[in-house]
Structures are given as C-alpha cells and as structure tokens.
Amino acid sequence: MRAAPRYDAFISYSHDQDRVIARALHSALHSFARPWYRVRALRIFRDEHDLGASPHLWKDIEAALATSSWFVLMASRRAAKSHWVEQEVRWWLEHRARDRILIALTDGDLVWPSRAVDFDWSVTDCLPDILRGRFTDGEPRWIDLRGLRDVAHPSDQAADAPSWRRRLRRPRPEELRLGDLVIEFAAPLHGRSKADMHRESRRRRLQFRATVAATLAVLLATTTVAFLQRNAAVDQARIATARQLAANSLALQATRLDLAQLLAVEAYRMNPDRQTRAALFQSVTTSPHLVRYLHADDELTTTVGSRDGRVAVAGTRGGRVYAWDVGTGRRVELPRLGRLVTGVSVNADGQVVAATDGTTAYVWTPGGGRTSLASPAPEALPSGVSGRVAVSPSGRYVTVGLERDYTTFLTTHDRSTGRRTSARAELPAGSLAMPTESELVIVDGGGRWDRRAVPGLTRRTHSDFALNGARGGPTAVSGNGAWLTYTTGAPVLNLWRTDRPADQNRPDLRGLSHGSLPQAIAISDSGTRLAVVDGGTVYVSATDRGDDLVTSQLALPGNSTTVAAGLRFFGADERLLMITGSDLVVWNLQQITRAGRSTPVPVEPGCSACPPPQVDIRPDGGAVAVLDADGSHVAVRPLEPGALDTTLTAPSVTYTAVGWAADGRSLFLNTNTAGIQVHAAAPGLPRVRQLSGPDIGAQPLGLTPDRRGLLYVAEDQPGRFWVRNVATGEIDWPPTAADTVEGARAPYSGQVVTTFLTDGRYRAQVIDVGSGTTRVMDTRDVDQVASSTEHVVVTRTDGTVEVWDAAGRQRLRSLHQDSSFRQPADSTDPATTAGYLAQQRSDRNIVVTDLDAGEEVASLTLPERYRQRLVTLTFTPDGRDLLAVAEGGVSEPEDGLLVRWSLSPDAWTAAACAAVGRDLSADEWRRFAATDPPDDLSCRR
Hints:
Blueprint: E1 7-12, H1 15-31, E2 44-46, H2 58-66, E3 68-75, H3 77-81, H4 83-95, E4 101-105, E5 142-144, H5 149-152, H6 163-166, H7 183-190, H8 194-252, H9 257-270, H10 274-285, E6 290-295, E7 300-305, E8 311-316, E9 321-325, E10 331-334, E11 343-346, E12 353-356, E13 361-365, E14 369-373, E15 386-391, E16 397-404, E17 407-414, E18 420-425, E19 431-436, E20 439-443, E21 449-453, E22 459-463, E23 475-477, E24 483-486, E25 492-497, E26 509-512, E27 520-523, E28 529-534, E29 537-542, E30 554-556, E31 567-570, E32 575-580, E33 583-588, E34 596-600, E35 614-617, E36 623-627, E37 633-638, E38 646-649, E39 655-660, E40 666-671, E41 676-680, E42 687-691, E43 698-703, E44 709-714, E45 721-725, E46 741-747, E47 752-758, E48 761-767, E49 774-776, E50 782-787, E51 791-796, E52 800-805, E53 811-816, E54 831-833, E55 836-840, E56 846-850, E57 855-860, E58 871-875, E59 881-886, E60 897-902, H11 905-916, H12 922-929
Parallel strand pairs: 1-2, 1-3, 3-4, 4-5
Antiparallel strand pairs: 6-33, 7-8, 8-9, 9-10, 11-12, 12-13, 13-14, 15-16, 16-17, 17-18, 19-20, 20-21, 21-22, 23-24, 24-25, 25-26, 27-28, 28-29, 29-30, 31-32, 32-33, 34-60, 35-36, 36-37, 37-38, 39-40, 40-41, 41-42, 43-44, 44-45, 46-47, 47-48, 48-49, 50-51, 51-52, 52-53, 54-55, 55-56, 56-57, 58-59, ...
C-alpha cells in the first residue's frame, strides 16, 4: 500500500474569507529560502475543496493532519465560526502538541494581555472556542496579516458582494507581498532561528540572481540557436509538404484532374517555387477544354444538356434530380423521385425539365415547380421498369416512355392544353428524343427505331432491322435521335441514320473508337462528331463518309470512370457532358485555354517560304497589331477591355512592316512603294500622314527598341543595315557593314539579334541600334535566336539552348533539349521573356520552358486546323502573357487566330478554382500531405 505523503505544515482556513491569503501564504512558504534545484522549500497541505459540500473528504483531511508537523490556523471571524476549522483544530489538540500551532491573523481582533495565561476572550473574536484555555504554557507564535485584507478583498470583492462583482477582480497570490512576515513561520517549520533564516534567505537570493544571470546567458544563446533551427525545420517541413502535394498533383492529372488542381493550388500557396509553379501550370493546361466540374450529393446515373449550352441536368442513384447553370455552376435541386433516375430531358433553352425513375415521372419549370405526369400504361406496371422521357424544343410537349417485356408504353402530354395521348411501341426504348415539335424518335439498343407524329403518336416510319454484333459494349444515340452506333471492339465505329432503314454493311458515317471496349459513346446531333470514353479519358474525333478517316483525336483527360449513359453532346455540338461518380464534367470543344482567351483575326497566308505574321504589342500592353505575310491586312485586337478592335485592308500597296509609336497613339506601316504610312490608333485606322525618303532597297525588320525608327537589312548588299526615322522618313544611320546576314529573327524590346552564315556555319550577332555596330556572339551552329530586355537565347542545331546576358557577351547557362525542338529555318521563331522561353516543337505543340530550372512548364496546344499553319509567338511587355498568332486557311484567310495564354500564377489559381468549383477537404489533405490540415482550405481565399 502506498504511504501517505508527509507535510511540513497543514493550513486550516475559512474558504469563504481567506482563500486568497491562504494561497499567498502557501506560496510564500514554498519559495522562502528554497534551493534552486528544488521545486519547493517546504511541503504544505492546503485544502482547495468545499468540505461543507463533501463531508466524505474528511478521511483525506484526517490523513493529511496525521502526517503534518505543524498546524497553521488562519484566524478570522468566519474561521472562528467554521465547523470544519473547528473540527481540524479539535483533531490537532487531541493528537498533536499545542505548541505546534501557528496562528496567522487575517480578520478580527487577537489580544494576549501581558503576564496573561490566555487570550483575552472578551476582545478576541477570531479563534474557535475550542482554543480557550489551551495555551497555558505561554503565548503561541502568530503573525498579523490583516494588512493584506485590502489587497485580497477590495471594496468590490467583499465577501457579501454579488458573485458577478467578485469575479471581476481576483488577485493572484504573487500580488500579496508577505515579505519578512513569512520568516516568523518559516523559521520553526525549518527548525532554525529567525537570524539564520534571514542570512539563508539573503544567500539564496544572491545565489539565485547569479544563477539566473548565467542561465539567461546560456538560454539566450540556446534559444537563438533553437529558434533558428526550429525555423529551418519548419521551412524544410513546409517545402517538403508543398513538393509532396505538387508531386501528387502531377500523378493525378490523368485520372483526378479536379483533385490535381486543388493540390497544385495548395502546393504553390504553401511554397511558390519552380516545382510547385510547374505543377500548377500543368494542372490548368492539361485539359484546356475543361469548363468546370458540377457537383451532386449522390452518384449520377444519367445526364442531358440544353441545345443552347446553358443548362445541364442529371439524375442520381438515390432519386435526386439536379439542374445546373453551366456558366456559373449554380445548382438547383429539383423534386426528388422514389428511386434510381433512369431518364432526364430538357428543352432547347433549359427552362423545362422532365425526369422519371421508371415508376413515376414529372415535369418541372422554374416558375411553375413540379407537375406529376400520369402513367403511360393502360394497366399498372410493376415497379422497377425502365423509363425514358423526352421534351420538345419549346417545352410544350413531354413524352414519357415506360418499358416492359420489350414493349414501350408511351404518353405525350401537351402542357398548353392539358391533353395527353397514349400508345404502344413494339420495341424497348433505349432512347427517346423529340427533335422537333411534331416528331418523336424511339430507338432501341439494337438499331430498331420508330418515328411518330406528335401529339397523336401515330407511326410515320420505322425500321425493324436489328444491327448484329453489338456485344459487350455500349450503344449510343445522338441527342436528337438522328444517329445511332454501337461497338464490337473494333477501332472504327459505324454510324447509321434513323430516318431510313439501315444497311449494316453500308454505314452512313464512320468514326474512330479508342481501346477495345469504350465505357461510353456519344454522337453529336449533326453526326459530325463522335466521342468515346476509354480509361476515363474522352476521345473526340470527326466522322467521315469514306474510308479516309481523320486519324487524330482530341483527348480530354482527367477522370477515371463513367457510366454507359454518362456521355452526351449538347450546345450545338460544341459542348460535352460526362458523368464521373457524383460529378458532372463540362467541356467546351471550342475553348482553347482556361487561363487566357482566343479571338479570330484575319491573317492571309503567305507562300511556302514566307515568314509568319508580324506582331507588335502596344507599349502599354493594351492592344496588338497583326500584319499577315501577304501584306494585305493589318488587324488591331484588344488585349485589355475597351481597347481598339479594328482591321485595315491595304487598298493598292503591300504592307511590309508594322509597329506602334512609343506613346501608342500611332501605328507605323511600311509599304513596298509609298514609304511609311502613319495611322491614328482609332476605329478604321485612318492615315494621318505619309513619310517618304530615299529608296534603300532594303527589307524592313520592324521598329527599333526605342520605337523611333524602322530597322532595315539590305537584300542586295549583305551585311548592311539602315534605320529610317519614323518622324522624318530620313535615314539616321549611314550604311554599316557586317558579315553576311541570313535573316533577322528577334526585333523585340531589348536587343536586335540576327543570324548570319560564315564559313558554312550559322552564328549570331547583336545589333547595337544606338551606334550601328554589331557584336558577334561566341557560339556556333545556331538554329534560332530570341531576345528580351533580360537575355538573349540561342537554340543550336544539336538541341542545346544557350542563355546569354542581354548584350550577348556572357553565356549564363546551357540547357539540353531533344531533337523534337530542331526546326527548319523558315519555322516559327521562339520567343523569350524574363524566366521563360516559348518554342513550337516539331509536333506543333507550343512548349514553355523555365530558363532558370531548365524544365518544361507546360505544353500548349492550338486547335487541330491551326497546327500546320505558320505561327508567331511573342510575350507581352510585362512578360505575364504569351501570344500566338496563327495564319488563316488558304480559302479562309479570315480564319486566323489570336490566342493569349496567361503565365501569371494568380490567373492559373483563379482558373483552377473556377473549374473545380469546390474546396480541398481536410481528409484529402491528410491523405496526400500526411499532416494536419491548415485552418483554411478554401480554394478562392
């Protein structure tokens, strides 16, 4: 059995009145003359509990009294009347010596007359009556602590004050300074004289001060080192966590693009370095056609979208039905059905929605709410049958089809008149569609179909010919019921029209499949596009009537799975819906980038050996001027809201160069015969003056870096350059000789860099526009060059990329790229800005490289029809955006394209958060970061 602890003293007091002073005395006795290496100088017992409410605690009190050497009584008027104080005093008088009692007076009067043998009880009112006549051997040792009463109990702390006032100010024990009064009790408790205790206390204080000073010095040094080490450890942990999140983001981009983007956002915010920036950029550019994820609270089973592309509707396994505004992501939960939703439909503008679970059906409108639709069967159908619905384009007619035993029971409801018509179709309805207000199309999974009149449901035409061979894979019908297909696992899918009998051996259209067994198939209403899902990735291709199929497919990655009814075209065949779990993914096939924008621009294509379009960005970055290789069009397009948007067509001359004035108010156009034209930056680009000058027989390269002159290179005099003043038209430079010039590649805002041929090898040189001199760079086998205000970048024929300072004097670093970056001389020039290099690879993808890390940041893709056209790349003056201008087609010059990609992490973060439409959860953080999540995981914070 564990022995009871021994105490040097037991403090008895009134809890109501002396709690604070007793606590102060307790603390003072603990600390007086205490060696530095001990927790306390004495072991004191002081009960903190209300014994009046718990009388069974007396056994503990009695045990403490039995092991205490001294008894300290806190004398006060309330203590004198306390039952528990009296009981503790009684026990001590019965079991211990009365000369071991010490008294601390806190309230009332305590009088011991001279030569008396007891207290004067006619005056003394602070001691229990049981002490009368007990001190016959002389006056006991006591101290007067009544001076602490005003501190322990100020006026608003009086014992009889309301409890709320007493709680306003409760003094701490250290505020009650006992000073040398405590020696009166400490000396007998220590068994030493008061003089010894004074000396010991002073020695301890001096020793303590010396120890504290030495300890503080050590602690200061140790704390500084620990603080630095802790900060370093925290930084290392933060960096490691951020990089782990970035690595997980890269690993998930093919299967969980929503989660990959959230992890990349958190990684970059935690530690914005090259690795996390690359993960963020790649997560945004992985699927540029992605619009957004739409979230449901249950597993989705079927979906459809409106023809105008604004509304998406989906049903769930648990009977929920949702409608989303595709543009904003706003969700509306429609009335719930009893079980799994098997069919949903919506009219052309998304304002009328119908849904069924195979047992019941309803139609819903934003203003009218839910209207139940009567069962189409003349007799009761068993629960669990398959159900389909179709809504006409205007929303006036709604048809419900319930299938049993390979028969479909149909009812068409006229919402305008309230009338309904019922009929049977002797085939199972795999799909219902109402392409017009007057026609219903019913298609089964094997290729049979009916076309019926609306609202009478009389048969117009049908096909009973079933297509054979659809084994193990999904079938698909276009949203308007016009086309159907199925898969047998072959790489090609055959499409048949549903308005005439099908010939299995003579399909109407053909398109590409992917993999041996697609998870889902979708056909556009026009039949010109086909989409299949394989391994969670959507592959979109064009269809064709002949055997020469277009072999390219647009890949839409980022999700792992779908359901057979989970892929649908909508919005004039330009948008696509895909179910993945409880999410609905929306793609826009015309969208080129999520962190930027694209706009058409007229760019007449040039000859096979002609250079790509000329592009010059207004100095303030607000607009861009594009000159086609043919010299017939100058298009100005806005890069900021409110900027100029206009196109100038050359009437009788050919434009050979374009550039903005330094103030952005004028546009300079060099012509082949009429010198320089100056046009005002206004709608229509009106010409304000004409500058003529001497004929120098030279090819203009563009404006000089200071935008005060046009730089020319002589065509018939290799190595000679001129600068024509754009204010006067005169030549500012005399002819300047250099080595043979092959072509100028980079008339950008910094240095002007050209390549030239010498001794059968290409080299690079920097033109100093101010002096007219040239500097040959110490590099060989040059393929292409680019420059900015920060540096000159040289790509060599062996794939090496050299980064030089802006003057071309010092090579800063070299990067090595594979042969896919090697280009013919007339290919797209690279572009560079502070930290980035943009190049068009041989596969025609535009690759952005981090020049400091030597790593690919992102691969940007132009639409398929532009991939073989000439492209010009350039960065905006602030380096935050990359621009690509692609020429138009031979028969469609107006079909040129301007694409702007943002390189700002803020823009990438905004694009990621907008597309995902939710926040990272705490469980997802723990799973992928393996640490406790931060307090705020909101994506848009």
